[in-house]
Amino acid sequence: MMRAAVVRFPGSNCDMDALRAAERAGCRAYFVWHRDDDLQQANVVLLPGGFSYGDYLRSGAIARFSPIMQAVRRHAADGGPVLGICNGFQILCEAGLLPGALLPNAGLTFVSRPVPVRVENVATPFTTAYRQGELIHIPVAHGEGRFVAAPDTIAELEASGRVVLRYADGGNPNGSSANIAGICSSDGNVVGIMPHPERVADPAIGDDPGHGFFSSLASWRATAPDAPITTPA
Amino acid sequence: MNFRAHIRVMPRDGLLDPQGQAVENALTELAFDGVSSVRVGRAIEVGVAADSLEDAEDATRRMCERLLANPVTEDFLIEVDPA
């Protein structure tokens, strides 16, 4: 069974939802604490949303120095899938595992509502369950979600198909450059997104358009029989 | 020797600074004429023990590069004084 580690930082608050979403997709999901340095043979790492370290200094700026992040770096370098959601995306950018940064929303207010997004890269381990260009509605809940990067970085992301999610139908809630809602690393295994698929991944609360981010992992696992198992440091 | 580092972290020029804009709008509302280009950043003070002023400045610069400023979106200015 695929093992999914959900990293808990002080201030994480979407950790349980992420765990349940991974479980529902058939993973053996478990928590690891930010002070740990071992991912316990994880096949997949989830960095959940929240306000790690109270968002002091900048969101994600301090969480990236947590001991567990060294293990996450090794896992990512070995090609292991990593999904950062919201605060998890901010941490991945601060850690340099993804390019760019997430700044305070252009409107300065915290936005919490479903937004329309298009799935523009269906080749990552988290998006194969979607159709190219599929329009889904997923909630955002953030005060600092405005994606910015140097113009040549944006151009490179666009040219290499590394925009995974894009706000659609004029639904950009934060002023992100090029309506970018999520990106991936050059190898595609590290994905960061601002919207919260784990909040809409169970039909018990209505539709489950976010389930695909977790159910995709089964097909990734099937095509990657030698999927990396992260070893302890 | 003990030093005090005064660090100013500012949003990079050309990046939208919605906080600065909101403050600018408020100042204009308050009838302060001729207000423009308001930017809101962050001031940080750090006590630094080092052998020389140069060493203290160097250490402060490395703190900014590693943690205190985001190299993608922010610039920093450093002033180090004897404590």
Structure write-up:
The complex is a heterodimer of chains A (233) and B (83). Chain A has helices at 15-24, 67-77, 87-94, 151-159, 212-223; strands at residues 3-8, 28-33, 44-47, 82-85, 101-103, 111-119, 135-142, 146-148, 163-167, 180-184, 190-193. By secondary structure, chain A is an alpha/beta fold. Chain A has a single domain, classed as Rossmann fold (3-Layer(aba) Sandwich), CATH 3.40.50.880. In chain A, the strands form 2 sheets. Chain A has a 9-stranded mixed sheet with strand order 2-1-3-4-11-10-9-6-7, with helices on both faces. In chain A, a hairpin with a 5-residue loop joins β10 (180-184) and β11. Chain B has a single domain, classed as Phosphoribosylformylglycinamidine synthase subunit PurS (Mth169, Chain: A, 2-Layer Sandwich). Chain B has 2 helices and 3 strands. Chain B has helices at 18-29, 53-68, and strands spanning 2-11, 42-49, 74-82. Classes of the chains: A alpha/beta (233), B alpha+beta (83). The interface between A and B is medium-sized, with 21 and 11 residues.
